[in-house]
């Protein structure tokens, strides 16, 4: 066998080590699925084998030893129904054979056990996990539009109860080892490195070779759907999950059905129910889009798909951060976490120290939660040197500038930093609005000048937008990408332009919410519709988060820059009044469209005077139409960015949109959405909206041309890649 090694010790215990060759992480390849039943047969037929310990052979050094992550991309990317069904069913058959093999099987979990990895261990009779803060156990499939299809929806509820299982699976959350123990997911937590020993001890102590659910006396914890308490869980759970997901995710509904129907049946039949709903889900456009963007494309970007291949790989060891404010402090923290020596510069020592204390606070929390050891936290913190001294920049591979958003100030610090840099070191600006080509004018080496745009809060937001100035060279692109990959974020690479890609397109969502306000829609309705589209928050709420004064400032700047070509945004006067006459700046001063002095926030009463409500009653048709309107507005802007050459890769357009501004994940991203609707239908609908609401909906010529030729974005991209 290629993927499993079997060693039998003097006590007759077979240790089966899972180790897929050539991968840093074990995945469920077709070879793996073929080999599981093979060794299960061997275990069954060999009288010398008394029990089995299943563990992972992946090295501890790179990451904790890993059981495996999830389904292989190849299978998920396909749309061959029969093949998918066969694969799903084959896995369930193999795991069922394992748990009924008649000999005790213990999982010695020495690393991440996510998705299929956890499902494999759930088919074992006993689970021991190492007490390593890096280990997580969970079923995150919902995050790519799926649900657990390797027995997870059947075994987890039988183990910990329907309610707890549904909560966990519907949010795709994971447990740390100790939480997994108290939740009842594992049986024992041991010192790291002692997992196999403990698993063997359980077998030698008479470990039982039967799953609880295969015993006559088995009762579902918390009761099944016909049990009075259990049925309550289903009714409430159903309502809650549907409300949370606004019906946008068939995976949630199908998972509920698989659990509801499955837990009433014996395990063999239950697994068939799961497979049926799993495949049904896999074939929905939502799952196909999410798998492609959030799983496959994201993985490709993470691994450097956008990196110029002919530049040798670099490894940034020392990086200076200019400005220790909100962004600079966050950037310093993520760098240090990745093992990068960090020089954190501000105008006063006090300011620089304050930036470092931000990292200290996060690290303290991580240690207290058991996610990190004190030694590791100390080592991370020791990597950050707060200072006012630009000379300490010497020897840096890269500089990230995060001082105030002022062109003159940025020019000044660019000169000061460049005086210290060796040839080839990169200068990256974290500006959120100033075009990179313009900022690069202050640089004596514009080929090494680039935009490295982080999102707030830096430690949570996974995307980094790399922006190319006119003169940015290939080496600077490659080095910036190496940096982003080292700090484990997902990069996209875009061309320069007002608002670059992400801020520009996100802005249209917020702007369209304002237009609705001006048309007389009730504010609560606008935000509800926004959330119903699958965006994380409504447009008015998000406007408050970004800050109303910032949006007034950007509008004024744009007007000054564009002169005659400037088109006023409907509803912007309302915001101008709020900022300039009433001092309402948004969440940052507790006063925006909402008042934030109480929790939960309440709608600001005065808003109805500035924007009288004329549309307060919603019908399902109206909600659907307005949901589509909000999504179309953003997608049209994405298409314009494409036409203007700001972006040219559908993967970065989709992944960037979802990770940067929360574009409804169920769509798979704006480009996938346009492709799935079909370009012709999309153009027709956008034209209708343009007639109704204004030119901002007019689709760019590029879309009309593609529609006329019957093209799709991903189709063209596949052709380009193949060529
Ligand atoms: P901030 O006001 O929190 O921090 C700016 C820091 O720069 C302050 O600590 C200030 O003392 C320092 N500074 C000023 N002059 C300096 C100099 N000559 N040398 C060294 N440090 C100096 O601002 P924030 O929010 O961190 O933004 C920084 C940059 O990041 C801006 O360009 C902003 O547009 C951009 N940005 C901000 C985002 C946000 O959500 N706040 C998101 C993405 C980018």
What is the name of the CATH superfamily of the largest domain?
Answer: 2-enoyl-CoA Hydratase, Chain A, domain 1
Enumerate the distinct ligands.
1,4-dihydronicotinamide adenine dinucleotide
Task: Point out poorly predicted stretches.
Answer: 61-79
Which overall shape is indicated by the principal axes computed on the Cα atoms? globular
Number of β-strand runs: 19
Radius of gyration, rounded?
Answer: 27 Å
Describe the protein.
The protein is of the alpha/beta class and 723 residues long. It folds into three domains: 4-283, 2-enoyl-CoA Hydratase, Chain A, domain 1 (Alpha-Beta Complex), CATH 3.90.226; 318-498, Rossmann fold; 503-716, N-(1-d-carboxylethyl)-l-norvaline Dehydrogenase, domain 2. The protein is built from 30 helices and 19 strands. It has an eight-stranded mixed beta sheet, sandwiched between helices. α3 runs antiparallel to α11 (267-282). The two termini are 37 Å apart. Residues 61-79 have low confidence and may be disordered. The site of 1,4-dihydronicotinamide adenine dinucleotide has 23 residues, from α13 and α16.
């Amino acid at each position: 066998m290629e993927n499993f090694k079997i060693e039998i010790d003097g006590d007759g215990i077979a240790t089966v080590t899972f180790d897929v060759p050539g991968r840093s992480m074990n995945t469920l390849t077709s070879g793996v699925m073929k080999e599981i039943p093979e060794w299960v047969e061997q275990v069954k037929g060999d009288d010398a084998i008394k029990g089995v310990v299943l563990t992972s052979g992946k090295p501890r050094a790179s990451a904790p030893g890993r059981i495996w992550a999830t389904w292989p991309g190849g299978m998920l990317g396909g749309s061959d129904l029969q093949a998918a069904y066969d694969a799903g069913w084959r896995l369930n058959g193999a795991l069922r054979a394992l748990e009924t093999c008649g000999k005790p099987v213990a999982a010695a979990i020495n690393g991440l056990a996510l998705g299929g990895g956890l499902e494999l261990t759930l088919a074992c009779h006993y689970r021991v996990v190492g007490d390593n803060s890096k280990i997580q156990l969970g079923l995150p499939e919902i995050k790519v539009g799926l649900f657990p299809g390797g027995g997870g929806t059947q075994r987890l509820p039988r183990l910990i109860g329907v309610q707890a299982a549904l909560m966990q699976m519907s949010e795709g959350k994971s447990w740390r080892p100790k939480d997994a123990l108290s939740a009842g997911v594992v049986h024992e937590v041991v010192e790291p490195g002692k997992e196999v020993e403990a698993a063997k001890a359980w077998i030698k102590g008479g470990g039982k070779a039967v799953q609880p659910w295969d015993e006559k006396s088995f009762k579902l914890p918390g009761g099944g759907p016909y049990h009075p308490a259990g049925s309550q869980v289903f009714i409430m759970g159903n309502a809650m999950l549907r409300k949370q997901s606004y019906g946008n995710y068939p995976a949630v509904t199908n998972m509920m059905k698989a659990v509801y129907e499955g837990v009433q049946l014996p395990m063999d039949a239950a697994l068939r129910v799961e497979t049926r709903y799993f495949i049904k889900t896999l074939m929905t456009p939502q799952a196909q889009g999410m798998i492609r963007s959030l799983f496959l494309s994201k993985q490709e970007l993470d691994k450097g798909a956008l990196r110029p291949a002919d530049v040798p790989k670099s490894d940034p060891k020392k990086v200076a951060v200019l400005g220790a404010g909100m962004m600079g402090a966050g950037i310093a923290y993520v760098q240090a976490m990745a093992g990068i020596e960090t020089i954190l510069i501000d105008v006063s020592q006090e300011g620089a120290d304050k930036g470092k204390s931000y990292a200290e606070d996060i690290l303290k929390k991580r240690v207290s939660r058991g996610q990190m050891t004190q030694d590791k936290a100390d080592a991370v913190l020791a990597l950050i040197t707060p200072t006012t001294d630009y000379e300490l920049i010497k020897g840096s591979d890269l500089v990230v500038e995060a001082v105030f958003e002022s062109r003159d100030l940025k020019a000044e610090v660019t000169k000061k930093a460049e005086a210290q840099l060796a040839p080839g070191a990169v200068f990256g600006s974290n500006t959120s609005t100033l075009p990179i080509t313009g900022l690069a004018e202050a640089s004596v080496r514009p080929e090494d000048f680039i935009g490295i745009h982080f999102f707030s809060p830096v430690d949570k937001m996974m995307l980094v937008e790399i922006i190319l100035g006119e003169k940015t060279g290939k080496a600077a692109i490659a080095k910036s990408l190496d940096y982003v990959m080292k700090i484990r974020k997902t990069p996209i690479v875009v061309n320069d332009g007002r608002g670059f890609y992400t801020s520009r397109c996100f802005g249209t969502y917020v702007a369209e919410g304002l237009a609705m306000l001006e048309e007389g829609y009730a504010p609560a309705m606008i935000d509800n519709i926004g959330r119903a589209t699958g965006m994380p928050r409504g447009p008015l709420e998000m406007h408050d988060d970004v800050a109303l004064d910032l949006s007034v400032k950007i509008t004024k700047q744009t007007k000054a820059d564009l002169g005659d070509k400037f088109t006023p945004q409907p509803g912007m006067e309302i915001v101008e009044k709020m900022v300039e006459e009433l001092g309402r700046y948004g969440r940052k001063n507790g006063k925006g469209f909402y008042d934030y002095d109480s929790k939960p926030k309440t709608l600001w009463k005065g808003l109805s005077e500035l924007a009288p409500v004329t549309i307060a009653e919603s019908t399902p048709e109206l909600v659907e139409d307005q949901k589509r309107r909000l999504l179309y507005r953003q997608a049209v802007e994405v298409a314009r960015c494409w036409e203007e050459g700001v972006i040219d890769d559908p993967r970065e357009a989709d992944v960037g949109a979802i990770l940067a501004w929360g574009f409804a994940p169920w769509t798979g991203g704006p480009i996938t959405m346009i492709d799935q609707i079909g370009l012709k239908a999309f153009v027709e609908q956008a034209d209708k909206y343009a007639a109704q609401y204004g030119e901002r909906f007019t689709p760019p010529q590029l879309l009309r041309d593609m529609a006329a030729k019957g093209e799709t974005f991903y189709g063209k991209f596949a052709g380009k890649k193949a060529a």
